[in-house]
Structure formats: C-alpha cells, structure tokens
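Q: Can I see a sequence and its folded structure?
A: Here is a first one.
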Amino acid sequence: MKIRLISSVALLIFIISFFYSCSDDSVTAPPAPPVVQNLVKMDSGYVPGAAAIISFYAEDSLRLGYNKVYLVLYDSATNTLITNSHIDILPVNHGHSAPVENPGENAVEGKFPGAIVLTQAFPNGDLHWRFTFRVHNHFATGEPEGEVQFAIPRILDNPGKFKSFTMPDSTKLYVSYVLPKTPAVGMNDFEFTIHKNEPEIYPYDGSCSIEMNTQNLTNNNYPTGNVNPVHTSLGHYKGRINLDQNGTWRINLKIIRNSVWYDTNFEVNN
C-alpha cells in the first residue's frame, strides 16, 4: 500500500511538471515598452493601410545635417508593440529628397533606429520639410502596407556641422558632422558622413580618403595625435581628434577622391 501511494504521488508530480513545462513553452512575454523619455517626439499618427500607429522621435530638435531618429510602431487593433517591420523614410523639401539611413527590420529595444541628413534649414518655421514613412507591418495578418506623412515646420540651423560642395571631378557631396556631440579636452572619437548629391538617390560615398588636423582658433595651436578618419560603413567615416585645451576648434579635412581633393572643415567648441 505504501509503495502504491508513493507511486501515485510520483505520477502526480510528473503530470503537474509536464503540464507546466508545456504551458511555459507556449507563453510568450510581451516585449518591454521602449524607453523614449530621453528623446524628442516629433509627431505620431495612424498609418492608413498598414494597421499600425507610428511615433517619430529624434535625439534633439531636427536641424541641418545629420539627425539620428527613432520610430516606434504599435498594432492599431491590439496596441501591441511591433518589433519586426520594414520602414522607409522619405523626406521631401520642395519636391527634392535627402540622404537617409532606413531602419533595419528588427527593432532595437522596441525602437527602429535610422537617420536623416537634412540639407536645408528653416529656423523660422517655414514648413517646407515633410516626412513620409512607408510601413510594411510584419506583425499583422497579411503583412499590410501603408504610409503616413508628417510636416515638421522648424528645422534649426547647425553652424559648422554641414557642408555642401562640388569636388574638382564635378562630384557633388554632402558632408555631415556626427560625433563628438559634446567635445571634451583631450582625445575624442570623431565621426562624419559623406553622401553624393544625386537627386532622388543620394547614395553614401565610401570611396574617399581623408587627411585631417585640428586647429585651435584662439591661439592657432595644431596639436598632434589625430587619427585620420577611414570609411567604416554606409558612408560613415571614423577617426580620432585631439582637442588638447578648451576653446573654439576647426577640424580641417582634406577629402581626396579620384586623385583630386577638396578642403573643408567643421567647427566645434569644448
């Protein structure tokens, strides 16, 4: 009798364990809500045709040059966070577009990161830039698609951080400052992007070689130790700059392409 009781208890424990293990396998925890408190919300709205609601965020107010942006999607029927989708960004200013970095199809911590290079500032709120977002919703049945457009009236100027010029070989380039956001005394990671000014395409250009120095405009000091930027990916060039004291600095760049070059610069303060 005792053996039979022990066997019954063991069988009951096995059944309960099996049931819960199966239940755990079938339960998927909802994704954590994205952290957006440190971002600036540009706009949000329903995406007709895509069964989605999109929110458009940036790291700061939109301005001339390189802008890191983040998109958050929710299913419009269930309000569930969407973490897998294709999103295309289409900025338009008087019928002309601009360079973009479209997000990957998988969200990062609930957000789809991308970037927009704005080629003209409108600090007085002239309402020329409009941003269309095309959404292919992988979450909903049938993977519906649609688009929505937001108008952002004010695009701030960004002195010393964006350059547009024509190379001696007639190639038109946009050069946009990315890092450091807050330059410090000493060595800093340095990053910028290069895109071709080819209307409606605006591809990145990773074919350039860069020579560089840093110049303190207060005392005309040229510190050593800079590391010339090299292309990494998607038109991003990364190096190191030495800002060995406080002041206003000019980062002098020689951009070499097809055996010809153009001299330009950025200006920063630390």
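Q: Show me another, different protein.
A: A second, unrelated one:
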Amino acid sequence: MKALALSWSEHRRMQELCAGLGLELVVLKTRRRGALRYLVLSAATIGLLLRRRVKVLLIQNPSLILGALTALLRRLLGFQLIVDAHNEAVDPYINRQGWIRRLSYWVIRNSELTIVTNRQLAQIIEGEGGRAFVLPDRVPAAPPAGSAPILAGEFNVVLIATYAADEPIAAVFEAVCGSEVQLYVTGNPKKLDPAVAAGTPPNVHFTGFLEEEAYWALLRAADGIIDLTLMPDCLVCGAYEALAIGKPMILSGNTASVELFGDAAAFTDNSTADIRRALGALRLRRAELAAAAVVKRGEMAQRWDAAARSLARFVAEAAVPEVATDA
C-alpha cells in the first residue's frame, strides 16, 4: 500500500494511530531552531515525498507549516492528504493571530480528510468546507506495574502539567492551599510563571520531567489525577492515561470531555472554588470513579477499534492507483 505517515515531532496519538492503521510513520527532526528549522524540515519533506511517491499521506498538524506545505504539494505530487488535527490546528487558542486561523482553515479545505477527536471540532471543519472524521485518542497500554514511589500524604493527587498557556495551574495551587491534598506536579517547573512559582503552597511538590517508567509509577501511586485545560472542547492526554490504569480523575468540564468520559471523571469549571469542590468529590467518590474508569476503558477500546477499521478502509481505497480505461 503506497501510504505513509509523516510528522515533525513525536506524539503518542500519531504513533498509536499509525500502529492501528498499519502505516509506516516517519518523524523528521532537526536541531535547528526558528525559521531555519522550518526550512530544513520543509526541504527534507519535499525530498522524502519525491522519493517515495505515495498515494496517501497522513500528517500531524501542528505543525501548521507541515500542513500548509503538504496541502500545496498534494496536487503537484498526486497524493491524497489526510490530516490528524489537534485542537490548535482547528480552533487556535494559544496562537490566535488572524493569519494562523485563516491558514488553518485553508489546510482543512485543501485536505481530503481531517481527523479530530470530537464532534465539536468536526462541526468546525464541516463549517469551513472540509471533511471530518472523528477518532478520539487510543487508550494507551500502561507498562507493567513496578515499584511505586512513597507519597507524602493520606490523599495524594497528580497534576499533569506542561505549563502551557491553556493550563489553569495557578487556580489549582490556590485550590489545594491549606488543604490535606498533597499535589505532585509533573513537567519541567522552569516553565512555570515566576509569579505563580513564588506563591507555591508547601503541599505542592514538583516532580520535574519523569522518564516513562517513573511517570506511570507516580500515576499508579496517586489517589487521583488532575488534567485541566482552558481550551474549548479539548480532550487531554492525561484523561486517557487515567483510564489506562483505572484511576479517578478531575477534568475540565468542556462539552467534549463530559460527552466522552462521562461518569468516569469529576468535572470542574476551572475556577479555584470549583476545583476545590471537585477534589472533595474525587476523594468521596474514589472507588466509584475508579470502577467507572475501568468500564469506560473497555468501551472506548471497542469504539476506537471500530473507527480505526473504517479509517483504514478509507486509506486502503485511496491508496489504490486508478486504472485507466478506454473511452
């Protein structure tokens, strides 16, 4: 099958998607930064596509530059373009400049298919003249349980953080301040706003960046997981990780998250007071939420497999070369 997947960065969603579809994934990288990075990766992309002459190309957006480049090349090189679009590629939140939104919509219109995680994003794509396919993330397979870290308190919660602009970290810190919650925050704390860092409560612990095994061990040891976003209709990676190990979780109460995760999560409006309320609910309903997470994990695995089979058929049909017939 003359189909290929291409990305300019590593992401578990793309890896799981390609594994499910049986597609080769090429991740192009460079140590260059800024504009030079885009020039180097664009040249490498063009060279790859000229060599491989694929009929179907699946790409990950972001990068928007990769999306725009391949949308330009699709007719010239004769391939069909499928875009796995994250929220920022459909409804930009962090980069809100007008030209980014216009370019994002142009890529949507100039792709054969855009894969998104939920129906809300699909509606935006259809409204902009694109064709959407809904496929949430695949629930990851957690590694075997190893030795668990010893956590400090009677009620320990992990906040999954990357310190991006859409994460209400300050509100979470305020919510746990003075409480019995021991909060463990993942990711590189050097990225945290210095003003927020200066007011870090004593019951907040920064783990720093964790390798895969240590990260999963921390999640298993916790009583619950928090992963919040201010981004509309964003399904966060931490929710799938919580399902993978049957762990109670608190999520932002956007429509997409409520529809997908339902009774397997406690939801919040991201305000300090409501995060505090959700933490109390998680503590009281821990066993109930954990049981619901196990059920939800099975349901979502079945749904993902069915949707992936449908998408695989689309890719296979698109990859078959057209046979010329006499008039």
